[in-house]
Amino acid sequence: MVTRVSATPLALDWIERLARKHGPLMFHQSGGCCDGSAPMCYPQGEFMLGSSDVQLGEIGGMPFWMSESQFEYWQHTHLIIDAVPGRGAGFSIESPEGIRFLTRSRLYEPHEEAELVLLGAPAHG
Description:
Layout: E1 5-7, H1 9-22, E2 25-29, E3 39-43, E4 53-59, E5 62-67, H2 68-74, E6 77-85, E7 99-107, H3 110-119, E8 123-124
Parallel strand pairs: 1-6, 2-5
Antiparallel strand pairs: 2-3, 4-5, 4-8, 6-7
């Protein structure tokens, strides 16, 4: 089954660690100038979603969101969330841990695009 977002084993490990420490989490794909296109991680409910945010799926059981306008650009791309050494954005919960989440991507194959059409548009916030 095709998904819009997935995570590497290392990212899943960090999601599990952070959830043990902070409780349920949520992700929002940043489109801002300061954080570039970093996936931001927050305790669930700490980031206010709007009606123009769409849920792409879940990683590690945690919801992953992005703005609808940004989704228009990324809709043909599968997002792969990874964790790498370094200091991420100051607002993202993993920042003090010495790692940061990073978005990698790949274009969908034609058969995956067809599956996505059947899935329909992602749910709004």
